[in-house]
Amino acid sequence: MASDPEHPSLSSLGKVGKYSGEIGGLEEPLINGGHGPKNYSVAAAILPFLFPALGGLLYGYDIGATSCATISVESATLSGISWYDLSSVEIGLITSGSLYGALIGSLLAFNVADFLGRRRELILAAVLYFVGALVTALAPDLPVMVIGRLVFGIGIGLAMHAAPMYIAETAPSKIRGRLISLKEFFIVLGMVGGYGFGSLLVDIVAGWRYMYGASTPLAVIMGIGMWWLPASPRWLLLRAIQGKGNMQELKETAICCLRRVRGPVFGDSAPEQVDEILAELSYVGEEKEATLSEMFKGKCLKALIIGAGLVLFQQITGQPSVLYYAASILQSAGFSAASDATRVSILLGLLKLIMTGAAVLVVDRLGRRPLLLGGVSGMVISLFLLGSYYLFLDNVPVVAVAALLLYVGCYQISFGPIGWLMISEIFPLRLRGRGLSIAVLVNFGANALVTFAFSPLKALLGAAILFYIFGAIAVLSLLFIFFVVPETKGLTLEEIEAQCL
Q1: Helices 397-413 and 415-426: crossing angle, nearest 10°?
Q2: pTM of structure
Q3: Which of the 8 DSSP states describes residue 24?
Q4: CA–CA separation, 286 vs 271, rounded Å?
Q5: Which among 239, 244, 241, 274 has a CA at the least distance from the CA of 257?
Q6: What contacts 284, CB < 8 A, 6 or more positions away?
Q7: DSSP secondary structure letter of residue 30
Q8: I want to staple 188 with a disulfide (CB 3.0 to 4.6 A). Which of 184, 352, 421, 472 is the partner?
Q9: Helix or strand or coil: residue 166?
Q10: Collapsing DSSP states into helix, strand and coil, what is residue 35?
């Protein structure tokens, strides 16, 4: 073997990105399951996607419902509690409690993910969702409510870590991008559902309890569904090749699991596919158990740069901040809905749904890079337009409205779904659990940083300069995507590891 696949040169980062992951002259055993005739059943692929995706739906629902629940819990007449007179810090603990929990969940995932496996991690996430929602809904006082929010947030951290991995490792390569991007669609669907359900209950006494309690049935369905689904075949084979069980027994289990997630049409080709995956895992060195130091060298460092870089830019290009201004922008343009923040949120949520749906439909046909490059280019234009509006175009509100809608639409066809898709695909299998936990931690950490830094930066610099800064960061993200991020369309996970890292 002429080259060491375990320690590729970091100088190849630019080459891989620019030339869509092509490498010349390297021959390796590649799985042909993704390139031959159709070898999966769409019907069989639905449930291995649907139950993990409920974790995303619950995450989105929590975002939407909390925006209405904080209004309800502060109302002297409608909160149904005696401790409704909450300070801004206490309201902040309620709204961001799940975010802190998600950070804790991401740290937990780093240590337990590969031991538990994707399926059991999602079952644990469903249990935490259920307990967190129940404790929050029945909370007799603020401390108990915050504890419930933290527990629910830990469930978010685990679910957003394990769901992309489980879907990526069980989905056929031809529709993997579509299914993982559809998980982002479920997050947005949950947000719209949370806004809508919350707006119906916000005028009911103790409505916030019903808003949070509504998560429990979905958590139960998610838990039962994940209990019924098989383990990830690739996770089983990783344990087999690393000597963490009987090789023959794990192979037979992986064959059964693969048949279940691919459907009857897969037929007798499951044993052959399992043998090919094992051969590929051996070729790329997966039989050696991962160490912490390996996260920061060779192919995993490259995957970490790609994955963590994408989710970092996903947050620091201003996504939370732009949405913060949505109500005032629409109000300045004379839209009556802008007087009601909930209606504005529903309006933007529907736009997000439409654009995410568009990305889902084309991601496996156009590829990841074209969507990222096109979408982020639109974000750059919209951010500079927003900066100009607040600086010298304040008498032309249609500019701000157009920029707002352009930003939201472009984000939802690029960073929104593709960021989560890429981090689920790019890490080598034996390092995927830890690598993805670092990427999820970066995502939630950057989200918290941008959210908390926004107000002081706005007071210091003004909205115009802030949007110009976000625009400049978006330009940097565009360069990062062009030179660093590879194309993974149509490749199996083993081919991505062999060709792109």
Answers
A1: 20
A2: 0.82
A3: S
A4: 19
A5: 274
A6: 5, 6, 28, 428, 494, 497, 498
A7: -
A8: 352
A9: helix
A10: coil
Angstrom distance (rounded) from CA 391 to CA 221: 50
**Residue keyed to tokens 């990526």:** 168
Q: Going by C-beta distance under 8 Å and a sequence separation of 6 or more, which residues neighbour residue 464?
A: 387, 388, 389, 390, 391
Whether pLDDT at 335 is above 90: no
- 3-state class percentages of the chain: helix first, strand second, coil last, to nearest 5: 80, 0, 20
Share of the chain above pLDDT 90, in %: 34
Q: What is the pLDDT of residue 286?
A: 54
**Average pLDDT estimate for 435-439:** 89
Compute CA distances 154 → 26, 61, 118, 474, whole Å: 43, 15, 16, 30
Residue 475's pLDDT is: 97
Angle separating helix axes 429-461 and 415-426, nearest 10 degrees: 150
CB 98 within 8 A of CB 215: no
149 contacts: CB under 8 Å, gap ≥ 6 = 93, 94, 97, 98, 101, 132, 136
pLDDT higher than threshold 90 for residue 220:
yes
Q: What is the pLDDT of residue 463?
A: 83
Q: How far apart are the first and last CA of the chain?
A: 16
By the 8 A CB rule, do 492 and 173 touch? yes
**Spatial distance between the Cα atoms of 97 and 252, rounded to a whole number of angstroms:** 43
